[in-house]
Design a protein that fits this description.
Blueprint lengths: L7 H6 E3 L5 E4 L12 H8 L1 E3 L2 H11 L2
Antiparallel strand pairs: 1-2, 2-3
Amino acid sequence: MGKIKTHKASAKRFSVTGTGKVKMYHSDHRHNLGHKTAKRKRHLRSSKILDNAMTANVKQLICK
């Protein structure tokens, strides 16, 4: 029986917390920051918990 491999691109972008939630970081915080407001950049720095609808899909990709 074959095993499911970890999707490495997803593993670099998502992580699973101790309680089983999936944590991710916001996009759009890499370049072209001059025209974005300070509030927008401040909120993009923080992480967020993924929605329940996508959690099962991402967990299947990244959990070994």
